[in-house]
Amino acid sequence: MRRKAKAMGAAQSNDSIKRRSGTTGSSTSLSQVDMFPVFPLDILEEIFLNLPLHQVVCICRLVCHQWKEVADSESLWRERCRREGYHLKDASKVPKDWRLFYYLCKQRRNLLKNPKGEEKLKKWEITDNGGDKWKVEKVMVPHPNEAVQINFITSYGLCRKMQLIDLSLEGYNPAFMDHFQPDIKISDWYAPRWDCGSEYEICVELLNQRKRPIQTFAPETIYFEQWNDQKWCQMTHVFRNYGPGVRYIRFAHGGKDTQFWAGWYGIRVTDSSVEICPAGDA
Question: DSSP readout, 127-182?
Answer without folding.
Answer: EEE-TT--EEEE-SS--SSTT--EEEE--SS-EEEEEEEETTTTT--HHHHHHH--
